[in-house]
Specification:
The structure is a single chain. The protein is an alpha/beta fold. The chain has a six-stranded parallel β-sheet with strand order 3-2-1-4-5-6, sandwiched between helices. Strands 9-10-8-7-18-17 form a six-stranded mixed β-sheet. Strands 11-12-13-14-16-15 form a six-stranded mixed β-sheet. Strand 7, helix 9 and strand 8 form a beta-alpha-beta unit. The two termini are 34 Å apart.
């Protein structure tokens, strides 16, 4: 089976938010909420009103008014729909941009947190022929700020998130699009939006061209780091489930650990991709050609290996995968044994030596102008997450010039902990009933690229160990997915 890969980079599709972006309805929604709330809204209310689905705002109002969330939601639907039907005003430049994209053969989709009933009214008013697809709050289990709506739109259009531009007007919508890995054109309506890597901020859609959007979209590369958990053998039909995860993620390259020897080759053959296998534990698979291989091909269970990937004409990148020793495990020593910072750091000696060896190999293989990505299961926390302990393994990588993509995309650990260990271990395996320390121990680091977005990946609702055989998610780790833009030539 060969996976589809559309070479029409840099721009494969443009995904439009609705309210406040294409049509001037943010003020209508604001007025509807005020009418149902029975009071004027203030700036302090914006986080619970702008860019939020009806249900969120209804529950927020229920908490403050004591009224039924169900009744409030019905009232919000009614008040907003009445205002929408009374007159929709397209935002400046919206229709011209939609028509310009159509003329250039670039598909568009509507991606909104509004319900289907409201979205269909707007689509009809704007012209249904202008949209290849639409995703509403009714179409995904989670809506904005989660990535689900944009990922659903990309799947429906058969495009890669990294090759798409999302057009948004709220912080909530921007967070959703960036979490999905899309480049973002932000056109703020009521609340300001700051600039960030992979994000362009404009005052209006008036004058925005297809060429500008194309420049925002690429070139790009999406990379997944995944510990397969002894090849995945603990879960029934694991290979098919692994393939589905990779396809659904939109990854271009996957750094693998715990491959059980054959997983990299088998996955690559099933996907129609290229692969590199090193030892019995490490591998890299890539939809793009692999032009060089680095490191010891007979590396042991722990260590690192790398490849050079030709992501596009004139665009090469070195992608490495590393697996570091699992014991002694710092989060256990911290949570269960209460060891102080100095001892925790001292016990990282084995992993630190392995990381330094990997960094030396990376440096020896590097060429000027070729970006570097290091994926891996490091089996240790990050110094960026736990400042009370200067965890030396991730610090060594940082000192070597590698940046943590997840923490770059989500700089506040409390707001986005990004735990990867473990979706199937809520309690410790020793039978004591102690909560399992949840931590971020899997990484996608980079040098020489721009982060567009990063997120953890777990599918389904994994049952806890040992009842894992039927899990949709075939691993004991969450994966990490990061989307990158190459430097502009």
């Amino acid at each position: 089976m060969t996976t589809p890969h559309n070479p029409r980079l840099p721009l494969q599709a443009v995904l439009f938010d609705m309210d406040g972006t294409l049509v001037d309805t943010e003020h209508l929604w604001w007025e509807a909420v005020e009418a149902v709330a029975g009071r004027p809204l203030t700036e302090a209310d914006q986080p619970d009103v702008l860019g939020r689905p009806v249900e969120h705002t209804a529950h927020w109002l229920a908490d403050t008014t004591g009224r039924s969330a169900h009744d409030l939601a019905a009232g919000l639907h009614r008040e907003f729909a009445d205002r929408v039907r009374a007159g929709i005003v397209p935002r400046p430049g919206a229709l011209a941009l939609l028509d310009a994209l159509a003329a250039r053969g670039v598909p568009t989709a509507l991606v909104t947190a509004s319900p289907r009933a409201v979205a269909d009214v707007v689509i009809e008013a704007l012209g249904a022929h202008r949209f290849a697809h639409s995703v509403t709050a009714d179409d995904t289990p989670r809506t904005k700020p989660e990535p689900d709506p944009y990922l659903a739109a990309c799947r429906a259009l058969g495009v890669e998130p990294a090759a798409c531009v999302a057009v948004e007007d709220t912080v909530t919508g921007v967070a959703s699009a960036e979490a999905a890995g899309c480049a973002v054109l932000a056109v703020p309506s009521l609340a300001p939006i700051g600039t960030a890597p992979g994000r362009t901020v404009r005052d209006s859609l008036a004058g925005v061209t297809v060429e500008e959007l194309s420049g925002m979209a690429g070139p790009a590369l999406t990379v997944l780091s995944w510990n397969l958990w002894l090849g995945g053998a603990k879960v029934d039909d694991h290979r098919a489930k692994q393939i589905k995860v990779i396809l659904d993620s939109g990854a271009d390259v996957v750094g693998l650990q715990e491959t059980a020897g054959t997983a990299a080759q088998e996955l690559a053959e099933a996907l129609g991709w290229h692969h590199h296998r090193a030892g019995e534990n490490l591998g890299v698979i890539s939809r793009h050609p692999i032009t060089a291989r680095f490191g010891d091909p007979d590396v042991g269970f722990y260590g690192a290996t790398g490849v050079r990937v030709q992501a596009a004409p004139g665009r090469a990148v070195d992608v490495w995968t590393a697996h570091l020793h699992y014991t002694p495990y710092g989060p256990y020593e911290s949570a269960f044994d209460g060891l102080p910072a100095a001892e925790l750091i001292a016990h990282e000696e084995v992993r630190l030596a392995q990381m330094r060896e990997a960094l030396e190999r990376i440096e020896n293989a590097s060429e000027e102008g070729v970006p570097v990505i290091l994926t891996g299961d490091f089996n240790c926390p990050s110094h960026l997450d736990r400042p009370e302990v200067a965890w030396p393994v991730t610090k060594a990588a940082e000192d070597a010039g590698l940046t943590d993509s997840y923490r770059q995309a989500h700089p506040v650990p409390a707001a986005a902990p990004g735990h990867t260990w473990s979706p199937i271990h809520p309690v410790h395996e020793d039978g004591s009933g102690r909560p399992e320390p949840q931590d971020r121990i899997d990484y996608v680091l980079h040098r020489g690229l721009t982060v567009r977005g990063a997120r953890t990946v777990v599918t389904g609702d994994p049952r806890p160990w040992p009842d894992v055989a039927e899990n949709e998610w075939p691993s004991d780790h969450a994966a990490v997915l990061a989307s990158f833009a190459f430097p502009v030539s």
